[in-house]
Each structure stands twice: as structure tokens, then as C-alpha cells.
Write a structure and sequence with these properties.
heterodimer, A: 493 residues, mainly alpha
């Protein structure tokens, strides 16, 4: 057994231990408080956990495997696009953190659909969003498992199937057993491991390449376009702008990112979550991007660009440290999957189930939560057998799709009092339809070579506003609940 | 309808986030597309060093200052007896 396997096994056992420990904590929680603990960790998370929860939830295999892979394939140009993610915590928590935190405490909301239900009072919207979120996030989760399995298999010599079970199984253990409580504990360990992994990989790569300057000169000889911000015209500024929208302005439309807004303890935690998240993402994204590019100067012959991170971990750093890098990469993926698993499960097991069977017992919800989560993770593992070549495109497709469909309903609905359920339902249906068409049969709909998300989202906002204005306004009690100081007559979520 | 005073802070934070991010994007776009590859700085193309490393680091420092100084600590609880949190 090599050093990398030993280090990685130790990390995996630690996570499994956290899952079991969290399970024991949850067992002692009274049934009436179970959901708040399982889905929102008792709404008591501090700044660093909030920062890691959002940063880790959004920075997925796209950051740790596919990001360096894109840098390997397209040079320094992709480093610029990667940097747009640095302010994801700001763009998510600052716009909606206060209002969601306020309403969540008023109606004891623990899921994003509790907030949506309270705002729009619509069962249709609950079913529609729960379905769409599962539709977009399960393939996304699956792509994460592919990244993790490839990485583990390459570095340990295990088969792809075994690596898949190992990388995904432990997520199942701490998510299903510990819920948000287990995830928040695991993420602290994972944050340290990810950061150490990124820095070790960067240092090893720079040393092996003979310094940054030498590697850059080698890249210039290989292809001068690797040094260009547009990769020789392949990625024009308009493409950069659409990436800035997807990773910044539109990020608020991602329901799994809303976990941080539902779970922070107080405004001090909220503020720290915003700026600490930027530091964390900077420390992860920049060294990994540079490692991916410099990796090309060391080995320009990889047939699958996404293999560059694990290849570097195996070949440019000592074995035991390679295990930390492997654990770091896999941890980055696991944090994302955990956030998604909680969001999908909460939507189905708490909101959809309660709509269908309002008299369901606390014990019933408890069982449904665990089984739904196990099922989601199981489906994602099954889909991971398909193994797409460049997982970054799957990630961008899923993120873009979710943003295009939910942005208006979440952001505009939280600030515009006139918004109603008809506007929300219409904009979601329109955004989904146009995104599907612009991504497949009619790419000409995308102006200036932008990503389909931009046109789908922009027009869905118009539909949201137009339909809301043409239909009756929401009830006064909803306005009182979301914006008024007195909420005694407001409907519960 | 009287509005909860926290809504004003929420709107201010929304505006701040969008303006801050827009200034960040514009600044880095200028540094990225207007500067050339040479001379190398720290061994990296000039646009990478300034637009993708130095500028983001400066904006992170600015963010810390703005968020900690401009956003007040307010109570998130619906408990009327609680007035502030730290």
C-alpha cells in the first residue's frame, strides 16, 4: 500500500467517524427539532463554516479537476474565467442573506422551498422547483462523482468502480447519517485539507517545472496562444462576460447555495462568511489554475486534460503529500455533493411530501429524509458510470440551467412586492424552455457568442415582471411577512 | 405598510454587491484585455499577474473593509427583546 493510499484512507475514515458522531447527536434531538437540526444545523453556524459551506458547495470538481484541466487545454485564458468565482459568497449572501435569515426565523423555515412556499403560496411552484432542482442537480452530482472516482483511481491504482464507491460512499455516510450537522462538521476538516492540497500541489508543480518563468517560456514555444487572454480568439470578451454572469450576478439563482443564508447564526457570521469566502476561493482557485497551466510545460501529452491534477499529484510531489492533495481534491468534490444532496432531499422529503401528505408524522419525515438522500446519492452514483470526457461542460450546463430558471423567482421575488406566483411559474417554464432550445437546436439565439444562460435568464426576468403585472398582486399578509415589521397575521411556511 | 428597517439594509447590501462586482469585472477586463503578454512579471504574462492575481487580492482587501465597516450588526431574531448580536 503506498503513502497516498494510507493518507487518503485516514481522511476517509475521519469523515466516516464524523458521520457516525453526528448521527449520535441527531438521535438525541427531540423529533420536533429534528428537521431544523438535520437541514439547518440548528441555525447556529459561524462565519468560517458559512464561508466554507458556500465556497465548498459552489467550488466543485469544476475548480479542483476540470478547472486545472481547462487551464491545461486552453492556457492562461481559463485562469481569468476561474477568477470570477472569487466573489461567489458575496454575490450570494449579500443580496439575499438578510431577508432570508429574517423570514426563515419568522416562519421557522429550514429549506429554500419553505421560503418559496411562504412567498408565493403555491403548491405548483413547490413541485416544479423540487423537480427542476433534482433534474439539474443529480447529473451535476454525478459529474462530481466521476471527477472524484477518476482522481482516486488514477492515484491509488484502484478500479474506477471501487474508486467511485469509495469517494461517493463516505459522502452518503455523513450526509445520510448526519444531515447538515454532519456536513458542517465535515466541511471544517475538508476546508483545511483542500487548502493544504492546493498549496502543496502548486509548490510541487512550480518546483518540478523549474520555476514559473521557465514554464511560461516553454508554453510560449508550444503555442503562443496559451499566453493570450482569448486563447487566440477562441474566448472573446463577450464569452468572459457571460462567465462573469454565471459565476457572479446569477449565482443567487442556485438553490444549493442558499444553504448558507438559511443556516448562519447572526450578522457577524454573515459578514465573515462573505469576506472569508473570497479569501478561501482565491487561495483555492489561483494556485490550482497556475498548476494546471504549468503542468502542460511538464507534460504536454495527456489525452484527457482533466487528468492533470491527479497526474501532478502523483508525479511532482512525494507520495504521502500526494495523499493530502488527493484528499483535498476529493474533499472539494464531496462538499459540493453534500450541499446538493441536502437541497434535493429537503425539497422532496420535507416540502413535496408535506404537500402530498400534510399529516405526516415527525418520525415519517425523519425516515423519508434519510431514504430520499440515500436514493439521490444512489442515482448519482449510477449515472457516474457514464463517465463524460470533460466534466466542466456538464457543470456549466447544470449551473446555467438552474440559474436561468430560478433567478427571477428567488432574487426579484424577495425584493419586489408586486411579484406573484403566476410570474414565478411563467418565468421558470419560459427559462427552462428557452435554455433547452438555445443549448441544443437553436444556438443562434445566443447573442455575441454568449452562453445560453444569459438570454434565457434575461428573457425570463421580462416574463416574470410582465406576467406579475398582468395578474393579481400577492396578499397583504405575504407583504407583511417578508417586508413588514409585524408578522403576527402572516401565513406560515 | 411600514417596512422593517432591516429591509433597507438588505437592499443596500444587494446594491453594494452588484456595484462592487461590476467594478471588479470592469477593472479586471481592462487589465486583462488592454495589457499585453510581455514583459513577464513573476514569470507570468503581465495581464495574468495584474488582472488575475494582484487586482483580485486588492479587491478582497477592499471587500473586508467595506463589509466590516459599512454593514451594521443587527438582530436577526424575531424576538422583540433582542436588539443586537455580536
Amino acid at each position: 500500500m503506498n503513502g497516498a493510499v494510507v493518507t487518503f484512507s485516514g481522511y476517509t475514515l475521519l469523515l466516516a467517524g464524523i458521520g457516525i458522531w453526528s448521527f449520535k447527536i441527531l438521535k438525541k434531538i427531540p423529533l420536533e427539532r429534528y428537521e431544523q437540526e438535520f437541514y439547518a444545523a440548528g441555525r447556529g453556524l459561524g462565519g468560517i463554516v458559512i464561508a466554507l459551506l458556500i465556497a465548498g458547495g459552489l467550488a466543485s470538481a469544476g475548480t479542483f479537476i476540470a478547472g486545472p484541466g481547462m487551464n491545461y487545454a486552453y492556457g492562461f485564458s481559463w485562469m481569468y474565467f476561474n477568477n470570477f468565482m472569487i466573489f461567489m459568497n458575496l454575490m450570494l449572501l449579500a443580496p439575499i442573506g438578510i431577508i432570508i435569515g429574517m423570514v426563515a426565523r419568522r416562519i421557522n423555515a429550514v429549506t429554500y422551498l419553505d421560503i418559496i412556499k411562504a412567498r408565493y403560496q403555491s403548491r405548483t411552484l413547490v413541485f416544479l422547483l423540487a423537480g427542476l432542482v433534482a433534474l439539474f442537480l443529480i447529473p451535476y452530482m454525478s459529474s462530481q462523482f466521476v471527477g472524484a472516482a477518476r482522481c482516486i483511481a488514477q492515484m491509488t491504482g484502484l478500479s474506477y468502480g471501487t474508486a467511485l464507491i469509495l469517494g461517493a460512499g463516505v459522502v452518503g455516510v455523513y450526509c445520510v447519517m448526519g444531515g447538515m450537522r454532519g456536513t458542517s462538521l465535515a466541511i471544517l476538516v475538508q476546508g483545511v485539507v483542500i487548502t493544504a492540497g492546493c498549496l502543496i500541489l502548486f509548490a510541487g508543480t512550480v518546483q518540478s517545472a523549474g520555476g514559473v518563468k521557465r514554464a511560461t517560456e516553454i508554453l510560449a514555444v508550444q503555442n503562443q496562444d496559451f499566453l493570450s487572454p482569448t486563447m487566440g480568439g477562441a474566448f472573446p470578451p463577450a464569452f468572459a462576460l457571460s462567465m462573469a454572469c454565471i459565476l457572479g450576478y446569477f449565482i443567487v439563482g442556485l438553490p444549493h447555495a442558499m444553504l448558507g443564508a438559511l443556516t448562519y447564526k447572526n450578522t457577524a457570521s454573515l459578514k465573515r462568511g462573505i469576506w472569508m469566502g473570497s479569501i478561501i476561493l482565491f487561495v483555492w482557485a489561483v494556485p490550482l489554475s497556475i498548476s494546471g497551466i504549468l503542468g502542460r510545460a511538464i507534460n504536454p501529452r495527456l489525452s484527457v486534460p482533466d487528468d492533470i491534477s491527479p497526474w501532478l499529484a502523483m508525479n511532482v510531489i512525494p507520495e504521502a503529500l500526494g495523499g493530502i492533495v488527493l484528499a483535498g481534491i476529493v474533499a472539494g468534490i464531496q462538499t459540493t455533493v453534500a450541499a446538493m444532496a441536502i437541497i434535493i432531499t429537503s425539497g422532496i422529503a420535507r416540502n413535496v411530501l408535506k404537500e402530498i401528505k400534510p399529516d405526516i408524522s415527525g418520525r415519517g419525515i425523519q425516515r423519508a429524509s434519510r431514504w430520499t438522500m440515500a436514493l439521490c446519492i444512489g442515482i448519482a452514483i449510477a449515472l457516474a458510470v457514464l463517465r463524460p470526457a470533460l466534466i466542466q461542460w456538464v457543470i456549466i450546463f447544470s449551473v446555467g440551467g438552474l440559474e436561468a430558471t430560478t433567478f427571477a423567482t428567488i432574487l426579484i421575488g424577495l425584493f419586489w412586492k408586486r411579484a406573484n406566483k403566476w410570474g414565478a411559474i411563467s418565468s421558470i417554464l419560459w427559462g427552462t424552455l428557452l435554455y433547452g432550445i438555445a443549448s441544443t437546436v437553436a444556438p443562434r439565439l445566443n447573442p455575441f457568442g454568449m452562453h445560453p444562460t444569459v438570454i434565457a435568464l434575461a428573457t425570463s426576468v421580462v416574463v416574470f415582471v410582465g406576467v406579475s403585472l398582468c395578474t393579481p398582486p400577492p396578499e397583504a399578509s405575504i407583504k407583511a411577512l417578508f417586508w413588514g415589521p409585524d408578522h403576527s397575521d402572516a401565513p406560515s411556511g | 405598510m411600514t417596512e422593517d428597517p432591516r429591509i433597507r439594509i438588505a437592499r443596500g447590501l444587494l446594491a453594494f454587491a452588484w456595484i462592487f462586482y461590476t467594478v471588479f469585472i470592469l477593472s479586471t477586463m481592462i487589465l486583462t484585455y488592454a495589457l499585453g503578454v510581455r514583459p513577464l512579471l513573476w514569470g507570468l504574462p503581465l495581464w495574468v499577474c495584474l488582472g488575475s492575481i494582484i487586482a483580485p487580492a486588492i479587491f478582497i482587501v477592499l471587500l473586508i473593509v467595506f463589509i466590516e465597516r459599512l454593514v451594521p450588526d443587527i438582530s436577526m431574531s424575531s424576538d422583540p427583546e433582542e436588539t443586537s448580536e455580536s
